[in-house]
Amino acid sequence: MIEILGIVGLLAFAATSITIGFRLLLLGRRTRGVPELTIGSGFVVGCLFGYIPETIVLSTDLLPAEVESLILSVTQVAIRLAAVSILVFTTLVFRAESAWAKRFAGVIGLVLIVSWFEFRFTRVFASNSRDLFWYDCFAFARSIAIAWGATESFAYYARLRRRLRLGLADPLVANRFLLWGVGMTSMTALMASTLLASVLGVDPASASWVLFESFAGLVGASTLWLTFFPTRAYRRFVESRAAGAAAG
Q1: What is the pTM (predicted TM-score) of this model?
Q2: Buried-most residue among 26, 140, 191, 225 (CB within 10 A)?
Q3: What is the pLDDT of residue 184?
């Protein structure tokens, strides 16, 4: 039962990420917008060539050890590319004119690159303290890249919320920034789960931890889906809440 719940969270998050990624790539193809192309390619590459094959290799014994090592080495490249895409997207959308943001993104990107050359696999394959150090550097940098995107989105939502009270912002647009922030927070929890389990001394295969990851995957999937595919009922809900807040 626990394994099934874990698979449900994984599949929901993966399917949502791939669908959104391709949608953004199609949008970027029409608009020639760098943010859309960047985040779209990051979602597709990170999920299809990183998250999914890594999970399959780590949870099964279907392939020879040499093939597994090759696949994991490739997945780590894909996952890093996804993290870099989020860094670029966050910088372009929220901090395009900020010198410190570009330097910050550059430092995180450099850590992601160097850590791959120092240790190309996942934490369970670390054979010494040096391997653990570089994997943890990678996991921390990846998590920070995504968490930064969540923080910027929440901050922008807070600004739009103040404008909503004055009727100077679209409630659906404002809500999308809130949803994106929640989705990025859930993704941060997923990406940092191995590192968090190590810090907390928790077995990542335990039932409680699998449920935590599944919950994070389901929350991330639902909020990211609503960001780009809001239902009619959800739109009415957001607009009615905004109208009620303005009237109050």
Answers
A1: 0.90
A2: 191
A3: 97
